[in-house]
Amino acid sequence: MKKFFKIGCLGIIVLFILLIIIGALLGDDSQNKNGDSSEKEKFAENIETTAEVKNISIGDDLSVGKVVFKVNSIEETKQITAGNGMFKYSPEAEGAVFLIVNVTVKNDDVEMIQTDSSFFKLIAENDAKYSPSRILVADDKYFVYEGINPGLSLTGNIVFEVPSGLTGLDLQVKLGNWGSKSGLINLN
Question: How far out from the chain centre does Cα 101 lie?
């Protein structure tokens, strides 16, 4: 009987500690449950200065951590040729086009970084999010899993399949574990 009380009390104590840990991890979810703020507003709160969000546009540098992003140009097209002209890609969805965003990424860190198109996402005015399209046989002009050594930069294209004539777009850039560092570049 004494053995039962030792295991039973220990089990209750362990269960109590587990409940406390789970409660701490879940945290207080009472923050703005009414959904009034848009995705862009929530995103802007996570950036160091909101002035940075409003002023960064095509041709401007955006520093995220120790990496500098710059959108050089955007282009809308119905077909992409890759593999030195051997492969042609067209949007799969009806009424869609490819939006090609030309970006320069500069590594100001002291170690090499790995970058690819997964660093980027388009966010529309209506909070719709567009992930990059994959170009399987890509030329060197498209971002694939590339390493950038310290002090160097890499320029390439990111391709998004979007509805034709889409406006009010921002390019979201993310770095770090689970996108812990991020920024927005206005594409209008």
Answer: 14
